[in-house]
Write a structure and sequence with these properties.
It is built from three helices and 15 strands. Strand 9 and strand 10 form a beta hairpin. The strands form four sheets. Strands 1, 8, 9, 10, 11, 12, 13, 14 and 15 form a nine-stranded antiparallel β-sheet that branches. The protein is globular. The protein has two domains: about 180 residues, no CATH class; about 90 residues, no CATH class. By secondary structure, it is mainly β. It comes from Corchorus olitorius. This is Neprosin PEP catalytic domain-containing protein.
Length: about 375
């Protein structure tokens, strides 16, 4: 599967079918007068003040030694400020984790292993190994992870508290869908904001018990040090303004059978090992492109969650979200134009879709909508 995706998303919707070490260490040192009362910090972050009944005299040697310690602390602080980067503009902290220590290798079948070398790309696929674009907000300031590591978005207490339970954190809620295929949910509950994000999700049993988002469980093996799965996308398209799109490709390595993910113009993100799956160990028999939202009608009305840009497909380029250059990879690892595309919109008054084809974009479609409106109560 290969496509380019417009990401002018004004709220979360699923836009993709399939699916620095930045340790933010804040050293707060109270460097007051030499004779100030000491403040000790325990691991819980509480401050302990030690009150003294009598202040002994301070020798010149003690004063000089304290001055040297203060100078040393200042140098340490300056060094830490240099090597430890602040959170990205979206509030995320990205840790650079050694490749063989990423969550995937906690899996019993993967322990002690290392990421595989890149596979053979599908034939007739144009890619650029030296491309530097990542389309992620955390890299806008020039941050990156060194070779031999992978960038992983740090999970915080706030992230987990937004979930209904620790057990459910990072997993898709079991939500009834109108159509007969199961899909993903992308929700501010997972990230705590409204930034559009590049995410993955895998499951082997239609979202019942297995799988998770991104790298929140053992499964997907990341091989790239430039892409943080789950990080915010940047730059973003603007309505009636400049448009940006991202190329995505998922294909099965014919040699080893793993499912690989490519992002942008040739950036291999990583792969899902073949042993995770049952039917997909052989091949896929259906591919879905498009967007999804969750509509529980908890208030008796259709959700006002927008899909794509929040505008209907008929508005076209610069206003509606789109997929373009849709292709499939056949059994012999060839990229082929997509044929027999079937369109589906569960509630066309809430969100709709329109297909097209030309020599530049190949097979494409616009999609999306505002959700609840006068025609979609």
């Amino acid at each position: 599967m290969a496509s380019s995706v417009s990401h002018n998303i004004s709220s979360f919707s699923s836009s993709s079918m399939i699916p620095v070490f930045v340790a933010f260490l804040l050293v707060a040192s109270s460097l007051g007068p030499v004779l100030s009362l000491p403040i000790l910090h325990d691991d819980s972050g509480h401050h302990h003040h030690h009150h003294r009944q009598q202040q002994p005299p301070v020798s010149t040697n003690q004063t000089l030694r304290s001055a040297k310690e203060i100078h040393k602390l200042r140098r340490i602080n300056a060094y830490l400020n240099k090597i430890n980067k602040p959170p990205s503009p979206d509030g995320d902290i990205i840790d650079c984790v050694q490749s063989h220590l990423q969550p995937a290798f906690d899996h019993p079948k993967l322990r002690g292993q290392k990421p595989l070398d890149p596979p053979e790309r599908p034939k007739d696929h144009n890619h650029t190994e030296t491309v530097t674009e990542s389309f992620q907000l955390w890299t806008d300031s020039g941050e990156s992870c060194p070779e031999g590591t992978v960038p992983i978005r740090r999970t915080t207490k706030k992230d987990i508290l937004r979930a209904s339970s620790v057990r459910r954190f990072g997993r898709r809620r079991n939500v009834r869908r109108d159509s007969n295929a199961n899909g993903h949910e992308v929700s501010p509950e997972l990230y705590g904001d409204n930034y559009p994000r590049f995410f993955t999700y895998w499951t082997t049993d239609a979202y019942q018990a297995t799988g998770c988002y991104n790298l929140l469980c053992s499964g997907f093996i990341q091989t790239n040090n430039k892409i943080a799965i789950g990080a915010a996308i940047s730059p973003r398209s603007t309505y009636n303004g400049r448009q940006f799109d991202i190329g995505l490709m998922v294909w099965k390595d014919p040699k080893h059978g793993h499912w690989w993910l490519e992002f942008g113009s040739g950036l291999l993100v990583g792969y899902w090992p073949d042993f995770l799956f049952s039917h997909l160990r052989s091949h896929a028999n259906m591919i879905q492109f498009g967007g999804e939202i969750v509509n529980t009608r908890s208030s008796g009305f259709h959700t006002s969650t927008q899909m794509g840009s929040g505008h209907f497909a008929e508005e076209g380029f610069g206003k509606a979200a789109y997929f373009r250059n849709l292709q499939t990879v056949d059994w012999d690892n060839n990229l082929l134009p997509l044929t027999n595309l079937r369109l589906l919109a569960d509630h066309s008054n809430c969100y709709d879709i329109r297909q097209g084809r030309n020599n530049v974009w190949g097979t494409y479609f616009y999609y999306g909508g505002p959700g609840r409106n006068v025609r979609c109560p």
